[in-house]
Design goal:
alpha/beta; seven-stranded parallel beta sheet; 7 helices
C-alpha cells in the first residue's frame, strides 16, 4: 500500500476504535504507515501500547486512548480531549464490536445482549455525535464502519449480534444521507468477510485459521479506499 517515500495520508488525523487487536490494530498500523497520526482507542492499555510500539518502530506516529466505549460519558470525554489538541478529525474507523454467545433467540443472555447493544449501537451513535463537528471541519472527513453479513442476512443463533449490526448499519446509512449534501464528509460500510481474528475464532472454534485471510488484507483495502476516496454511501465486502 505504501512505501518509505509515499505518505498519502500525511497530515491527516485518524481515530480507530477496537485498535488493540485484529482488524482495528492492523488498520491503525496501515494508516500510520500511510502517514496519518492515529489515535488508538480500546480498553486494554498493554495491548494498545504494543500496537503503538509497532507503529513507532515503523516510523509512524500515534496516541493511545485507553477507553471503555460503553461507560457513560466516556466518548464525550474522549472528544473533548481530542478537540483540545486537533481542530479536525479526518478519518474515523469503527472497528470495535462485541460478539455475544451464539444461542437460540429465546435463550439470549440479557447481560450479553445489553453489552452488544452498548458497544455496537449506543457507542456508535455517541462517537458520531461527539465527533460530528470535527469531521465536518475536515477537508474531506471519512467514516468507515465495519459490519458483518449477518446484519443484512440474519442466520440462526446469531440474533443478538445480527440485530445490533443491522442497527449499526442503519445509523451509518442515516448519517451518510444527512451529511451527503451538506459537507464533503463521506461514509462507507465495509463487510470484511471471513478474517483471521479472535472474534472469528470464538464464532468458529473448529475452523482452520490458515484458511481465512489475515487482518492485514482488510486493513490494506480500507486504507486504499481512504486514499483513493469514495462516494457516500459506499458498500463492499472484502474478498
Amino acid at each position: 500500500m505504501t512505501t518509505d517515500n509515499v505518505k498519502p495520508l500525511a497530515g491527516r488525523t485518524a481515530l480507530v476504535t477496537g485498535a488493540s487487536r485484529g482488524i482495528g490494530a492492523a488498520t491503525a498500523k496501515e494508516l500510520a504507515a500511510a502517514g496519518a497520526h492515529v489515535i488508538l482507542v480500546a480498553r486494554k492499555v498493554k495491548a494498545l501500547e504494543e500496537v503503538e510500539d509497532a507503529i513507532h518502530a515503523a516510523g509512524g506516529t500515534s496516541t493511545i486512548a485507553p477507553l471503555d466505549l460503553t461507560e457513560p460519558d466516556s466518548v464525550t470525554r474522549l472528544a473533548t480531549a481530542i478537540s483540545g489538541r486537533w481542530q479536525t478529525l479526518d478519518i474515523m474507523v469503527l472497528a470495535a464490536a462485541y460478539l455475544p454467545e451464539l444461542t437460540p433467540l429465546s435463550q439470549i443472555e440479557p447481560k450479553q445482549f445489553n453489552q452488544a447493544l452498548l458497544t455496537n449501537v449506543v457507542a456508535t451513535h455517541a462517537l458520531i455525535s461527539a465527533f460530528d463537528p470535527m469531521l465536518r471541519r475536515a477537508e474531506a472527513g471519512r467514516i468507515i464502519g465495519l459490519t458483518s453479513s449477518v446484519g443484512a442476512a440474519p442466520r440462526p443463533y446469531w440474533g443478538a449480534y445480527s440485530s445490533t449490526k443491522a442497527a449499526f448499519e442503519n445509523l451509518l446509512e442515516t448519517y451518510a444521507a444527512e451529511v451527503e449534501r451538506l459537507s464533503p464528509l463521506r461514509v462507507a460500510i465495509i463487510d470484511p468477510g471471513a478474517t483471521r481474528t479472535e472474534m472469528r475464532a470464538r464464532a468458529y472454534p473448529g475452523e482452520d485459521a490458515s484458511t481465512v485471510k489475515p487482518p492485514e488484507t482488510v486493513a490494506n483495502r480500507l486504507v486504499t479506499l481512504l486514499v483513493d476516496g469514495f462516494d457516500s454511501l459506499h458498500r463492499e465486502r472484502v474478498s
